[in-house]
Amino acid sequence: MVLFSTFPFVMTNIFFILLVLLFTSCVPIGKKSKLSFTPESLPQVEAVIPENVSYEFLKKEILTPHCIKCHDRMGTEAGLAWWLVPGVVEESELFLAMEDGSMPPGRAATTRELEIVRRYVEQLKPRAVKPPRLEAEFVR
Ligand code: HEC
After folding, report:
1. Is 86 inside any structural domain?
2. How far, in Å, CA of 79 to CA of 54, rounded?
3. Ligand 1 centre distance from Cα of residue 85 (Å)
């Protein structure tokens, strides 16, 4: 008799527990987020190299930490120009000395650093003179 009277109560409890289990199984606890932007990926974001590397970027990333202590002439854009041929990476000592591992002494340049130097030298390439802009188009 006791069993019968508690039966519905037990059933609702079991039903409730099953319901909770069903819901919790839908929540991906501890599952790795599909988002690619995680704290671990931040260094990669930081590592992005701009298409046109400016002298300031090159100086901050490479020259100041690795070169200027010995080559203070690299501390200005004009001074650095002595080690390169604008637009021609293969003829630029700045690039070649890093690529062959001789500079900076005792520390191999990373692929990323070589890419920064390459882009810097490339963007110095003298550009073709742009045709004059049709001002009328823009004055409205
Ligand atoms: C510890 C000092 C030191 C550091 C740091 C250093 N250099 Fe040098 N570098 C020298 C010396 C000394 C020479 C000249 C002697 C020689 O040719 O080996 C030289 C020569 C050069 C030359 C002339 C070509 C050559 O290979 O001789 C280039 C280009 C150059 N360095 C670029 C760099 C760059 C770029 C960096 C930073 C990534 C750098 N150096 C860091 C000491 C240094």
Report:
1. yes
2. 15
3. 17
H-assigned helices in the chain: 2-26, 42-46, 55-58, 77-80, 93-99, 111-123, 135-138
Do 61 and 116 meet the contact criterion of CB atoms below 8 Å apart?
Answer: yes
For the beta carbon of residue 38, count every other beta carbon within 10 angstroms: 9
- 122 in Cβ contact with 87 (< 8 Å): yes
Which atom from ligand 1 is nearest to the alpha carbon of 100? 26
| Residue 70 is assigned to a structural domain of this protein | yes
Q: Supply 77's token pair.
A: 């854009």
User: For the segment 51-92, what is each residue's pLDDT rounded down to a tens digit?
Assistant: 999 999 999 999 999 999 999 999 999 999 999 999 999 999
